[in-house]
Structures are given as structure tokens and as C-alpha cells.
């Protein structure tokens, strides 16, 4: 058996299921999964093994119509991830079909897709009838004839995911593995920890301010007893937001801290002491440093 290794980019609209698919392929939670759109800010790489192949997934932010600097930087990161990959998989939702957003992605692929290896994955297949799936597959392949294969999957339930993974394993280039066998994500642990806390905040706060906050791991201290002390700052852009994040008598931030700590302990397999602070930073959305903490390029946000 020849060793193979390569990069696979997952692209699609926000909420198409890219993070869920990545986590299922990798077999561990490396990309945050919420029902909020545009939660994946950085290009998270998860590493999956299949036989003698190593598949390095680039999970990109959802592709959408950008309005602000952060949006533009996220969309640039998504297309950049696709440009750097050996194979790109476009994920669409079966029950939503070809939306305006999918049409925009297809138009862009028709412009830049020449010479790129592309596959289509139709997700959430349990939500529609078989004949609708076939019609959608036909329509997508007519709109963009460059798809090498079409896969019908349910990222959440696992249907069809192994077929997609096996196909990718056979198609990535021959060559030595890019990462040690036990490494599942190339994001620094500090960033994964920050993402976990941000996920908990996003879930807890619903529509109130998902984009108006960011989380950074300020300090990570390994203790002699094997535990870790992690200090994180939640940046918000207004005083009023600080009150929302803290909650009545600090209940919200306390619940978020407990949920995040439990998940970190499970992920790291050891005890974690997590300390959260909330700070107002009115212009964090315009600070280059915040973007590099998220793995984004500040300049990509220039209008």
C-alpha cells in the first residue's frame, strides 16, 4: 500500500453542515458546531486517517454575501482554503436545494474552477425523497459539470460519510503523511479552547450578539499535578453587551464557563481550571491583532 496525503477543503453556505462533517470524518470535535451561521471563523484543519491515506481537512467559513470587514475576511479565507486544497468538496443541503447562495458559489466555481478537483456532497438526505435527491443532483451537475463525483450523505447521522472518506483517501496525492499519526488538528490548543468557549456563548446567547464577541486564550499554564489553568478574555464591543454576557448575578458567564470547562476536560483528558473575564473593546472588529488570533488576514477585509 502506498502512503497518500493531501488537503481537502469543505466549502458551502453557512450551516450547510461542514463542521459536523469534519468532526465525523476526524472522529473528534475539532470544529465548533452550532446552529448559528458563520461560526467557523478560521480555517480549521482536522486530520483523518483512512488505510494508508492521511486526509487533512480545511474547514472553511461559510460562503455568504459579505457586508463588513470581518465578513470579507471570512469569505476570503474560505476561497483561499479551496485554492490551497488538492480536492474541494462543495456541501449543499438537500432540503434547501439550489439557493441564491449556492448559485453564487456555482458562478464563482465556473469562473475559477478550471483545473481544480471538485466533488459534490448533498447533505441532510434524510429530509427529502429519493426522486428529489436525484433531480437535485442532476441540476447541480448541469450547473457545474466539473464535479468528479456526487455523494449523498447525512453528516449528522453518518450515512454515506464513509464512502466519501474512502473516495478522498484514494484520490489525495501519493506521498508521506503531513502530520504525526496522533495529531487531529493543527490549530494551537489555545485557539481550540477559545473556540469551545465561543461556541458555548453563541449557543447561550442565541440571537443577541453572536458576531459582536470574540474569545481569546490569554494564558495557559501547565500545573505540576497534570491539570491546566486556562485564562480567557471575552471581548465585546459595547458596555451593554458586557451585561448580557455576564447575565444576572453573573449566571450566564458562570454557566458558559462550566460548560466550556467540561468539554475542555473531555477533549484534553485531564482537569482544567478555566477563568473567564469579559472586557469591552469597542473597535475589536477593526483590530488586526484580533483577526490573526482567529487565523484570518485583516487585509482580506479591506473593502
Automatic annotation (TrEMBL):
SUPFAM superfamilies listed in its UniProt record: P-loop containing nucleoside triphosphate hydrolases (SSF52540), Prokaryotic type KH domain (KH-domain type II) (SSF54814)
Main location: cytoplasm
Region of interest called G3, as start-end residue ranges on this chain: 59-62
Database matches in CDD domains: Era, KH-II_Era
Pfam families the record matches: KH_2, MMR_HSR1
Region G5, annotated ranges: 153-155
Region G4, annotated ranges: 123-126
Binding site for GTP: 12-19, 59-63, 123-126
Residues in Era-type G domain copies: 4-174
Keywords recorded for this protein, A-Z: Cell membrane, Cytoplasm, GTP-binding, Membrane, Nucleotide-binding, Ribosome biogenesis, RNA-binding, rRNA-binding
Domain KH type-2 span(s) in chain numbering: 205-282
Membrane topology: Peripheral membrane protein
Keyword Membrane: yes
PANTHER family per record: GTPASE ERA, GTPASE ERA, MITOCHONDRIAL
Family: Belongs to the TRAFAC class TrmE-Era-EngA-EngB-Septin-like GTPase superfamily. Era GTPase family.
Complexes and interactors: Monomer.
Purpose: An essential GTPase that binds both GDP and GTP, with rapid nucleotide exchange. Plays a role in 16S rRNA processing and 30S ribosomal subunit biogenesis and possibly also in cell cycle regulation and energy metabolism.
Name the record gives this protein: GTPase Era
Amino acid at each position: 500500500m502506498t502512503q497518500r496525503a493531501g488537503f481537502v477543503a469543505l466549502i458551502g453556505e453557512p450551516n450547510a453542515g461542514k463542521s459536523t462533517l469534519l468532526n465525523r470524518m476526524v472522529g473528534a470535535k475539532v470544529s465548533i458546531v452550532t446552529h448559528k451561521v458563520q461560526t467557523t471563523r478560521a480555517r480549521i484543519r482536522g486530520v483523518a486517517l483512512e488505510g494508508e491515506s492521511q486526509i487533512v481537512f480545511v474547514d472553511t467559513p461559510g460562503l455568504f454575501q459579505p457586508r463588513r470587514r470581518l465578513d470579507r475576511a471570512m469569505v476570503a479565507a474560505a476561497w483561499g482554503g479551496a485554492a490551497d486544497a488538492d480536492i474541494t468538496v462543495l456541501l449543499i443541503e438537500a432540503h434547501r436545494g439550489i439557493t441564491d447562495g449556492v448559485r453564487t458559489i456555482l458562478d464563482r466555481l465556473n469562473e475559477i474552477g478550471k483545473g481544480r478537483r471538485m466533488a459534490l456532497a448533498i447533505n441532510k438526505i434524510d429530509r427529502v425523497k429519493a426522486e428529489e435527491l436525484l433531480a437535485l443532483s442532476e441540476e447541480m451537475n448541469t450547473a457545474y459539470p466539473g464535479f468528479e463525483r456526487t455523494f449523498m450523505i447525512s453528516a449528522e447521522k453518518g450515512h454515506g460519510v464513509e464512502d466519501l472518506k474512502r473516495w478522498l483517501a484514494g484520490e489525495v496525492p501519493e506521498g508521506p503523511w503531513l502530520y504525526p499519526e496522533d495529531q487531529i488538528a493543527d490549530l494551537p490548543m489555545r485557539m481550540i479552547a477559545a473556540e469551545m468557549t465561543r461556541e458555548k456563548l453563541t449557543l447561550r446567547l442565541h440571537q443577541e450578539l453572536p458576531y459582536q464577541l470574540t474569545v481569546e486564550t490569554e494564558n495557559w499554564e501547565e500545573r505540576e499535578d497534570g491539570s491546566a489553568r486556562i485564562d480567557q478574555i471575552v471581548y465585546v464591543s459595547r458596555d451593554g453587551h458586557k451585561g448580557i454576557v455576564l447575565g444576572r448575578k453573573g449566571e450566564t458567564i458562570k454557566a458558559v464557563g462550566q460548560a466550556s470547562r467540561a468539554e475542555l476536560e473531555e477533549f484534553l483528558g485531564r482537569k482544567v481550571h478555566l477563568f473567564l473575564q469579559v472586557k469591552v473593546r469597542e473597535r475589536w472588529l477593526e483590530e488586526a491583532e484580533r483577526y490573526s488570533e482567529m487565523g484570518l488576514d485583516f487585509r482580506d477585509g479591506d473593502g
